[in-house]
Amino acid sequence: MKTVLTGNTKGGQGKTCLTYNFAICALLEGLKVAVVDADGPQNTLFKNFKVRKDLQPSRKQPEMRALKETAKNSLRDELVDLRGGGFDIVFVDVGGHHSTGIFDAAFYANLWIIPAEPTMENFWGIEDSLQVKMDGAIRVLPNRVPLKATPVLKRVFADASKKLPMMKSKIHVRPFIPTA
Question: I need a surface site. Which of 96, 159, 162, 174 has the fewest CB within 10 A?
Answer without folding.
Answer: 162
